[in-house]
Sequence to fold (336 residues):
Amino acid sequence: MRESCVAVVGATGAVGEEMLRVLERRAFPVRELRLFASSRSVGKRVDFKGEAITLRALESGAFRAVDFALFSAGAERSRAFAPQAVAEGATVIDNSSAFRMDPDVPLVVPEVNAAALEKHAGLIANPNCSTIQMVLALRPVRDLFGIRRVVVATYQSVSGAGRRAMAELEAATRARLEGRAEPREVHPRGIAFEVVPHIDVFVGAGETREELKMRNETRRILADPSIDVVATCVRVPVFRSHSEAVVVETRDRVDLPALQEAMRAQPGLLLRDSDETYPLAREAAGRDEVVVGRLRVDPDDPRTLAMWVVADNLLKGAALNAVQIAEALCAAPTLP
Ligand SMILES: NC(=O)c1ccc[n+]([C@@H]2O[C@H](COP(=O)([O-])OP(=O)(O)OC[C@H]3O[C@@H](n4cnc5c(N)ncnc54)[C@H](OP(=O)(O)O)[C@@H]3O)[C@@H](O)[C@H]2O)c1
Fold:
């Protein structure tokens, strides 16, 4: 791969920090690294490969000569600055929800739909973290049996809501144990020792935007608008990794040994197929793979299967997927 100038927008955030580690760990060929954050952080220094890099502010010309701009600073910043980055010549890989449903912007999980990258026009969207891990587990199911309907309940860690949410879980847990009032800035109903069926805002018909994202993004990535998706997205007092109980209604009867074989062959997926080796959030934390356990066919319906799907939301759910997209673009001779 040729060496690139890489920009990371939101470099001090939960995802941004992981992006730096992933770029380092995967030896992404970085010629120059430009790091951006809010005015609160401008001027501070961040370490990359032993070199201290000063954080900058977003401004006109910031992306000139940048090859890849990895955005992870919220949808508002992406809407404001991603078009500028593209105009200045960068290929943007955006972690926010700003462009995910734009038909001109590919929404990509490289192990599932890398071919969608062929049509990009400078901007590529990284899917929602809970969707990424689910579609990776669904891909072999779709390929073998077809998918009619997915019913999923998520158990999402607080790091999915960023650094402030992680700090709040720690402070709230201590406060509750010490009999003090817990902080409730990020989680207004409290998060310590609680499970909260509410992620992002309510958008109508009793559904939250996180649940809507799971439906819309799953259909786009699996390229099948006929798939029904019903999600209940739940925040749990776990720091890192999202877990999901996924029930899939298939078009054809499920052949379990064939599915196990296809899952073992699926890049990016790790199947734990004996009963008690099911994955836990803390074991998935720091891993690149999406881990599947508790895979079983409904005894009452051979066209229904259930599984437990766990992944590190900051890695495969965000930073790793973004870097893999950049790697795929570098590897394709005609791209970016
Ligand atoms: N967390 C996840 O699991 C996850 C997964 C997929 C996608 N995402 C998406 O990734 C994005 C970042 O999430 P996160 O969890 O990393 O959030 P976070 O921990 O709150 O970090 C936010 C980052 O954005 C920066 N920022 C805020 N305002 C800015 C401004 N005006 N100009 C430039 N930079 C600014 C912050 O800089 P300061 O430190 O200076 O405030 C920080 O680096 C969000 O769009 C989120 O939806 C997150």
Summary: The pocket of NAP is lined by residues 10-16, 36-38, 40-41, 58, 72-75, 77, 95-96, 129, 159-160, 162-164, 313-314, 317-318 (CB under 6 Å).
